[in-house]
Amino acid sequence: MTFTLHRSQSSGSSPRRGSLKTAHGAIETPFFMPIATKGAVKTLSSADMAGLGAGILLSNTYHLYMRPGLEIMQKAGGLHRFMNWSGPILTDSGGYQVFSLSKMRTLSEQGVEFQSPWDGSKHMLTPEKSIAIQQTLGSDIVMAFDECPPYPCEKKYAHEAVERTTRWAQRSQEQFQQKIADQPNRGQLLFGIVQGSVYADLRAQSARELQAIGFDGYAIGGLAVGEPTESMYETLASTLEELPADKPRYLMGVGKPENIVQAVRLGVDMFDCVIPSRNARHGLAYVWREKNAASDSAAAPKSAPLSGAAFYETVHITNEKNKTAFTVLDSACGCLACGGGYTRAYLHHLFRVGEALGQRLLTAHNIKFYLDLMTRLKGAI
Amino acid sequence: MTFTLHRSQSSGSSPRRGSLKTAHGAIETPFFMPIATKGAVKTLSSADMAGLGAGILLSNTYHLYMRPGLEIMQKAGGLHRFMNWSGPILTDSGGYQVFSLSKMRTLSEQGVEFQSPWDGSKHMLTPEKSIAIQQTLGSDIVMAFDECPPYPCEKKYAHEAVERTTRWAQRSQEQFQQKIADQPNRGQLLFGIVQGSVYADLRAQSARELQAIGFDGYAIGGLAVGEPTESMYETLASTLEELPADKPRYLMGVGKPENIVQAVRLGVDMFDCVIPSRNARHGLAYVWREKNAASDSAAAPKSAPLSGAAFYETVHITNEKNKTAFTVLDSACGCLACGGGYTRAYLHHLFRVGEALGQRLLTAHNIKFYLDLMTRLKGAI
């Protein structure tokens, strides 16, 4: 069994703990994946990530395909060796990036044609191509190639996108099953991606059609793209009801700490989001509201209240009041910043004078906060 | 004795090993000081610096006075605590920066008036002020406030600058001796700075006058400011002859690895330079020419030839040929990059896609190269 639930679940809508086996080790669910877009979590090394206790990283197929490109990845022997990370890696399919980052993209049944924003060269990303790239990267979890429509989205278009996503998922699965001559299967897993915007019936259709094809896990895509939070939770809850209990469920690109708490309550197992790292680079840090929260959680994790957004606060490090704040962000935190003894006043100074070390220390801190959040959530289930 | 030579020297112009005692520990000479301009070695934390084996850091009085300013430094309890570095720190006097970075500076006998490049505010830096700032910073080695003339420099002006530097050195020493009410002397040392451009007689005059005042050590300033290398070596050799053998000698802002080798041969004990860190940020790495040089040096340091610039080479990491170079920069190096297993191909990729991690790993590598160079030089004396 690739995925094992620690408690059997009668319904799709309750929190759950499990274990997901990959070719690079097992990870306890629910978990959060820090984002190493271009083969590095911005400002941090793979050794830093291991030190923070990250269990799995996410990398971007689109970015790595563009630079350094497949030839380098092949010669490097895959992404793990290239970035020197021995834990599991999930790669997205590139679909989302093709839509959000490329100029002059043209969608067809075949796939998406697009122009490189770096050198203007033309490329075509198809389900077959996306999977083949991910096979070359050697990621532990491969994502099917999907179409993620924007929000808001007319129901007619959302319906077309769901059906195209199903056909692309089928082609993704077929490519995944093919043995590539010089790329042996490395125990990779393939996940399908449920689309359907905020329409419950389309989400149900998408979930049913993907299950008919059969995947190692199911992702919920196309959320947190601008819809109201309540709408996201409703769509998520109804979608989860349509997914099998015995497969891991991955909510893509979500989100704020309170979103993750709520999604775990609803039965999601996997998360990724740029929020902790991107906010860190802009000087915003997450800290537990209670004193010594992290150590409390280690001692008595189940007592920690994680309702709403009340369990944490955000620190704007460039705020004037941090100029003379000679305490670390969180004395119970074990990140490079807090564990290293770097005060808020020092971080404030580093941001004010533009020293990149400030961004690095805050990124490490925020990722640790998210990882600690998952630890607390696991403890609370 | 603050400074102890391991072998007594009959002449001022031969290589020497010694030990310099400071309030934050003793350091073996000759040594190199990585530059933490604004309270951080660019991209690296104090923990990183300790990991690389740096024995002492250099920080800039001018920059720290401008930002975060003295009030913060006072409240922080000094620079060591502010940046969380428990080893020794040397601070420059700010004179060089006032001349090179400030707009609308006006030199007078009193000191230098200048305008902040950040907010346009007017400031005055005098010998008394510079020393008082460094007393607040609590650096282990305080530098006298000097005038560093540009190159080339008319002899008449160089002469005036020498005499002003002597008068300022006297005032620096007087300020240094005063007990500041709320800033107890923390076992700080005060160094004088020899000026005189490339004129041997002016250098001799400057060295004599400073010794008459009396300092814990003597720096040679105003070199590597554009003069030919041979001229720098000649001036350095003649100046060293004028300095007492029993005090540490610090060659400011120099330089390339071969410059350091030559200066150590002539009897210099201390160095600082932005070259390793600045070049790293531009993608240039230093590596030993011999295979396994670093491990060889540990085993048989005296056999290592360090003549000319032949003992090392520079690697331009963005060079196309590094795209598929799946080896570390130097397999015998213990830096964050090489010891961490990050290949040249990965570093190349990080630089090409603009990931700050690349700059960090290369900075760590180059600083380790400079520190290893000093270890090899110590072994060869």
TrEMBL record, chains A, B:
Ranges for the region named RNA binding are 253-259
Class of enzymatic activity (EC top level): transferase
Subunit info here reads: Homodimer. Within each dimer, one monomer is responsible for RNA recognition and catalysis, while the other monomer binds to the replacement base PreQ1.
Q: Where is the active site?
A: D92, D272
List the GO biological process terms: tRNA queuosine(34) biosynthetic process
One cellular component (GO) term of this entry = cytosol
Q: Which reaction does it catalyse?
A: 7-aminomethyl-7-carbaguanine + guanosine(34) in tRNA = 7-aminomethyl-7-carbaguanosine(34) in tRNA + guanine
- What cofactor(s) does the depicted protein rely on? Zn(2+)
Which residues lie in Low complexity bias regions? 7-17
Q: How is the cofactor bound?
A: Binds 1 zinc ion per subunit.
Residues annotated as binding Zn(2+) are: C333, C335, C338, H365
Family membership, please give it.
Belongs to the queuine tRNA-ribosyltransferase family.
- The answer, when asked if Transmembrane helix is one of the entry's keywords, is no
Q: Which UniProt keywords apply?
A: Glycosyltransferase, Metal-binding, Queuosine biosynthesis, Transferase, tRNA processing, Zinc
Sites binding substrate sit at: D92, S93, G94, G95, Y96, D146, Q195, G222
Recite the lineage of the species: Bacteria, Candidatus Kerfeldiibacteriota
Protein name according to UniProt: Queuine tRNA-ribosyltransferase
> EC number(s) on record?
2.4.2.29
On the tree of life, the source organism's domain of life is Bacteria
Pathway where it operates: tRNA modification; tRNA-queuosine biosynthesis
One Pfam family here: TGT
